Amino acid sequence: MATTADIRNGLCIEFNHDIYQFVEFQHVKPGKGNAFVRCRMKSLKTGRVLEHTFPAGHDITTARVIRRPYQFLYSDDNGYNFMDQETFEQVVIDGKMIENNDFLKDGDVCEVIIHEETNQILGCELPQHVVLEITYSEPGVRGDTATNASKPATLETGAVINVPLFVDQGEKIKVDTRNRAYVERVKSK
Length: 189
Known about the structure:
With 189 residues, the chain is mainly β. The chain contains no helices and 16 strands. The protein is flat. The termini are far apart.
């Protein structure tokens, strides 16, 4: 058992016959009345996001989950195939359980979330940043950099994101997988 003081991003709890992971939270202490915790939680079984308010000091039941590194091998009709880095056991994960799965590249190491009591796979989290090559992008026009203008670019995995005008086809860029945003160019060695 834990209380609302133990809430942090990524903590998994059992709530309403489901397992939820905290996405964001905020402790609120109004001038009048009791303190409370406003939070957004994502269901690891359905992917649904729920907003809920807990009174301060409320007891919550933490879920026992394990995060293990798995290497992405390939995708096929059954789903996405991963290999455990320690036991070399292979598992297939449904694409709906992987957020922004269009950034996955062969060999990427992801964290697979497993419910410890039932040994059921609850989800898969990509690394926060991935480095990918741009396979197609319109050329930027010189002199268009006065504003923060952007253009669509297709990456080597098939994902399409917006990048600044000065980024060209063939360059490698770092992408934030949580919000699908361009971070920076990566110099090739």
